[in-house]
Amino acid sequence: xxxxxxVLGCSDSSQAKRVRVLELSRRLKxxxxxxxxxxxxxxxYLAHQRLAIVDPASGDQPLFNEDKTVVVTVNGExxxxxxxxxxxxxxxxxxxxxxxxxAHLYEEHGENFVDMLDGIFSFVLLDTRDNSFIVAxxxxxxxxxxxxxxxxxxxxxxxxxxxxxxxxxxxxSFPPGHLYSSKERAFRRWYNPPWFxxxxxxxxxxxxxxxxxxxxxxxxRLMTDVPFGxxxxxxxxxxLVAAVTARYLAGTNAAKQWGTKLHxxxxxxxxxxxxxxxxxxxxxxxxxxxxxxxxxxxxxDAIEDVIYHIETYDVTTIRxxxxxxxxxxxxxxLGVKWVISGEGSDEIFGGYLYFHKAPNKExxxxxxxxxxxxxxxxxxxxxxxxxxxxxxxARVPFxxxxxxxxxxxxxxxxxxxxxxxxxxxxxxxxxxxxDEEHPYLxxxxxxxxxxxxxxxxxxxxxDGLKAHAEKHVTDRMMLNAANIFPFNTPTTKxxxxxxxxxxxxxxxxxxxxxxxxxxxxxxxxxxxxEWDAAWSNNLDPSGRAALGVHASAYGNQVKAxxxxxxxxxxxxxxxxxxx
Length: 579
Prior knowledge:
By secondary structure, this protein is of the alpha+beta class. Helix content is 34%, strand content 15%. The chain has 21 helices and 17 strands. It has helices at residues 15-26, 81-86, 101-109, 207-220, 236-248, 253-258, 273-285, 296-310, 315-333, 345-349, 361-373, 379-388, 401-407, 427-432, 443-446, 453-456, 459-472, 475-479, 481-484, 493-505, 509-513, and strands at residues 2-8, 35-41, 44-50, 63-64, 70-78, 119-127, 132-137, 146-149, 155-158, 170-173, 178-181, 186-189, 228-231, 263-268, 288-293, 338-340, 393-395. The strands form three sheets. A six-stranded antiparallel beta sheet has the order 2-3-1-9-8-10. It has a six-stranded antiparallel beta sheet with strand order 4-5-6-7-11-12. A hairpin with a 5-residue loop joins strand 8 and strand 9. The longest helix is centred in the middle third of the chain and has 19 residues, at 315-333. The radius of gyration is 23 Å and the shape is globular. 53% of the residues are buried. It comes from Glycine max. It is an enzyme of class 6 (ligase).
């Protein structure tokens, strides 16, 4: 993994331009502290800042084909690179890097090879034989990527906004699952799964198939030549990631290099719900657990740094990014270079508490599709940039292409929340891992109510952020909000405060347009706000805004969600990787 920056067709091959590209590349140095490089071919520049995880000794970039006519700079992890190498018997590889296959696949298949890659990636490939180039981003947008255009006709590519915002006339987020070709001067979608059309699937629910798909997604991500760990909040998603990792670590190459003891990490305010649950899970699955505490003031002090790094003014993203940012610094100080995390499950299974109000399975499924399509603007952005601020990589098995295919092909009737039948949010996932003979997790953890990360680190966290914003944004300022910020006008003092900071770092119109907006309750899309008329008067991204659902909803207006009914015994699954 690394930070990439490319300037293509800029009509300037001078030393001054090279110096400028190097200067901009250094803005991404936090993403890759292990190595930096710049390759120039005429008026094309490909730069990178490397975080070395696979083949740290020889995998420095850029990467080339045999005669160096094809040049690649890439931020990614290609989990099936060994299989792909076997399909390229007539090619000579210069390194053991998993990304070394990209240039050779291009030689064999032209621009149509991207769907062959199983992993997360953003790359720029320059073909010096005809001076053409392609740019591609992974299916869901786990890796961050932006594209910009200069007045001189140049195309700019950067892992972060700060690499191009000062030099481009217009820039935007590079769409996930797309490829940009210089020959066509246009984007085209390379990732075309059935769920993307939002058609309602009808496959019956198979809990073992779902379990096996997730186990394989986790195990394939244990590809490493450096130390790693797992983020463990004590919620369902991170606990399943940790439990599966701990169960299958011993049989991997990672264990041969770094041992079978898995390290887990959690962050929260003193007394936070997550800390207690995470410790219990860690003891249960046998990890070496690291618990980090922070105060509300620690978080407030980090607000500006976090907004600079994550490059958004979205309230819920900032709320959750701050503790993740603080934790990542601690993790990196321990010598860990990547972590495995639980993002994506709530979008796939309808895990946010507002899904309790989905009127039918059709709207439930369509909302999950909308949420997955928008992940690159929210949770993927947070997970990628909050960790990479300290040179730490996050891997997310729930967003594995094969796992998504299996999970999104299930008839959404099985995902619907039906409390009268003992089915709470993410019932289909919980049921798949409810194994009486060889349990993955304690039963009450497996059926713990959903907590959004910004709530789970401590309910006082969000309240403290709101109180801080009250001190910096006056009622008079809010009266003028629509005039000052006509696009995505902030409707709360907290949002106004974050917006002011963002605009100071990224004042361009393209920057403000890169951030999503619209009404939301408990992380819903604007469309789902229509599910409950009461929500329109209580728009807040916290899970506690789901009035009538969350056990600790604002105002303590409701009772806790009923406990899950006892689930029938399931047979033990075989080792996931052997399926």
